[in-house]
Specification:
39% helix; binds glutamine; seven-stranded mixed beta sheet; 11 helices; alpha/beta; 2 domains; Helicase, Ruva Protein, domain 3; 275 residues; Rossmann fold
Length: 275
């Protein structure tokens, strides 16, 4: 079987499993098996596959058809134009989370806190693009922190990693110019369905989906400098809840929409002077 034939069959197979980007994913998986870049597959279209490679490809296609995210199968995912390493210990970075990075870069903080860093995607993208920013990233999961550390090393990002539960990971009295967070915000009942292969810990926001969001929002004024900004990702149906949780705690709070036009990011600014 040639590379082209294998890709054609794999695409049909993945389409049959209701996978939307079947051709793209077939290419990503074959490139992974062959150890080449996806774009190099085109030039190799007529090449015969070794039987060991064909078997390895088949095994990955089975797993993909069974619902495992392609990013776990290849161990890689692109985020903010950076190639990140991924394991099932961390959530697969979503494209809408790039918006969180955009907003941090606009604000150019001197000190940034990424609360619940997971793969490290937000912290690493910010550190790479703001070389003089001091970046602190926390996570409650040591296994997630191990992945985030590898991603920081891979991209030469200097980040201070702290293990602990949200603000509980921070040394007493630390203040940041910006807090960025993408906490678990999916309702428990739904999270169990979304997280068939991803860590529940990274998605499950409690019965209402708001348990962790409330803690992030309520704790933010105590960890921000006066006038500092909280940027917190939310679910598309959580705009009113997020604004309610922020009410009275910040000098201003608004929800920005993502590229799909959905409410996605709470932007809340701490009072400059208490009053
Ligand atoms: N947007 C993600 C999803 O719906 C959830 C991310 C999160 O809980 N922080 O799969």
């Amino acid at each position: 079987m040639t590379v082209d034939e294998a890709l054609g069959r794999a695409t049909l197979r993945l389409k049959g499993a209701a996978i939307l980007s079947a051709r793209l994913e077939a290419e990503l998986l074959l490139a992974h098996v062959l150890g080449v870049r996806r774009l190099d597959l085109h030039a190799a279209g007529g090449r015969e596959l070794l039987s060991a490679d064909a078997a390895a490809y088949e095994a990955l296609l089975d797993r993909r058809a069974g619902g495992e995210p392609v990013a776990y199968l290849t161990g890689r995912k692109e985020f903010y134009s950076l190639e990140l390493l991924l394991t099932p210990d961390v959530l697969v970075p979503r494209p809408e989370t790039e918006m969180l990075v955009d907003r941090v870069l606009e604000l150019k903080p001197r000190r940034l806190l990424d609360l619940g860093t997971g793969s490290g995607c937000v912290a690493v993208a910010c550190a790479v693009n703001l070389p003089s920013c001091e970046v602190t990233a926390t996570d409650v999961s040591p296994r997630a922190l191990a992945v985030a550390r590898r991603n920081a090393e891979r991209h030469g990002a200097r980040i201070r990693f702290l293990e602990g539960d949200l603000y509980g990971a921070l040394p007493e009295g630390e203040r940041f110019d910006v807090i960025a967070s993408n906490p678990p915000y999916v309702r428990a009942a739904e999270a169990a369905r979304v997280a068939t292969h991803e860590p529940l810990l990274a998605l499950d926001g409690g019965p209402s989906g708001l348990t962790l969001l409330a803690r992030v929002i309520e704790g933010a004024p105590g960890a921000l400098v006066p006038g500092g900004t909280l940027l917190c990702e939310i679910g598309e149906d959580q705009e009113a809840d997020a604004l309610r949780l922020a009410r009275g705690r910040f000098s201003s709070a608004e929800v920005a929409r993502d590229l799909a036009g959905q409410p996605r990011l709470l932007v809340a600014i701490r009072y400059s002077v208490r009053g």
